[in-house]
Amino acid sequence: MDKATLIESVKSQIREAKTESALESLLAWLATNKDYQTMHRTVLQLLSQWQKTKQDEVLGIISFDNARLIYNQTTHQALMMLEQLEKGATSTPAARMQPRWLWLVAAAMLLVVAGFFLVQTLQKPAATTAQASDKCPPYSTDAVFNILLFRFQHFGERKLSTHQALRRRLEQLGQRYGIPAGVGIYNDQDDDNQLPGSLTQASKIGNNCGVHLVIMGTEESQQEGAIITIQYQFLRMGEQFALSRLRITEREEVDTITSISSITTQGAITGSIEQAILLLFGVVAFENKQPETAIELLQSAQPADSASTLLRGMLLAESHLAVDQPEKALESYSEVLEKHPNYALALNNRAALAFQQGNYDLSLRDLDTQLQTRPDDPSARTMRGTIYMKINRLETARKDLETARKLRPDDPLIRKQWQQLEFKTEEQQRIREEAQEQVRINPNDVQAFNRLASASKNLEDFSTAIRAAESALQHEPLNLEANTTLIELYATLQRPEKVQEVIRRLEKSGVSRSEILRQTPATRQLIENKQ
Questions:
Q1: Confidence of residue 113 (pLDDT cuts 50, 70, 90)
Q2: N or C: which end of the chain has fewer CB within 10 A?
Q3: Which carries the bigger pLDDT value, residue 234 or residue 530?
Q4: Share of the chain above pLDDT 90, in %
Q5: In angstroms, rounded to a whole number, what is the distance separating the alpha carbons of residues 262 and 373?
Q6: CA nearest 458: which of 419, 498, 429?
Q7: CB pairs under 8 A, 24+ apart, for 477-480?
Q8: What's phi and psi for 242, nearest 5 deg?
């Protein structure tokens, strides 16, 4: 493959948000020519950094937002490498390998390689407050959400005027959906030195202009399309979006509390400009308390990159909750978890909604996943303890709620759940003692054996429960209550062969599987997921 074909192929992969594959292709090509040894080492480092970040993200070692910054930096490093390759360079001096704008990265950020500073950016004077004020576009007094666009930094021969296209489309969406959003372009007088070199500088200018969203980016014309990266920063909202964290109340209902999510209000989008516009304006609608509009826009947006998918899915779920569509909210959380399986807020909220719908098995799986990486999360412990109490796993529930009480002793919800657990435990202990006394008096009392089996099962005294259920069946082999208790016991003990044995025995006697499943919600979940 010649160099021109290679460059176009790699850029095409980057346009499709396949940066890792792009780096692998570039690395393989550079390895064929010893003149590119320096570039080969640089690309190898970039690829290793990308793969290490992806692994750390899966393991939950690094936050999604920090991972996103590394991905974006790596992508821009790759683009700068291709630009040098096009110009005939065979090595990558450090100064020429820096991104075109300054990325400010927190000093404590894990695994971020310090320093990706652009010489050109460092040479630009930051716009002063007075200069920025003079260059702010006018906004209508009717606008409630103002957007400031900066001219996109251009690569290549042909200018694309991406910022103008963005302005027209954003204005169209505002008119279509009745959102009084003002869209203006920063008056830089076509002087690149007046453009902000980073989102930090853009945000300072935006704050001085009194706007709610700033958008900047890069554009590079290609024979078959373009590579466009859009950077955005929502202002006047704090550093992160405020989303809801769902919880289970003492009345076995789902409640919401305001939670600061780990999704930051800034980011970068590489890919289709239309998808970026739909996503950003969907966020605008969300922030303007128009959930129906947010749903329509966010459902239409199909961003390719991982971070934008996370933002879209979480805001879409939140919007569904706002219009009382918990089933669709659960679907949105499931979509998020397909790409971000360890994202704590999505796990928490899907667990709560699944509990509300009676899907206790899914709730427990999500909470188990959450507690693997955050074992000291009192909210997750409380929720899991509540679910175990609901399905009458009282001793297991006690372990979680005891841990939650130690972590957060003054939490009123935890205290109420603990009181409810104590009441249920005492009740089951009383039933067990009375049943034991009754079978001692009358060893043929099937109902007493059933009560003894049920109470012992709820207290997780499984050996006593199995003996009591089998004693009942010795007198009445087709007793449905005793058989159902055995099914629950064997499923809980992860003995699927015994579950099927009991089911086959009932079916041979004429009892349908649907009748067995109707007995309790817990029975249904255990049979369907454990057999």
A1: very low
A2: N
A3: 234
A4: 43
A5: 15
A6: 429
A7: 477/505, 478/506, 478/509, 478/511, 479/446, 479/450, 480/506, 480/511, 480/515, 480/516, 480/519
A8: -95, 110
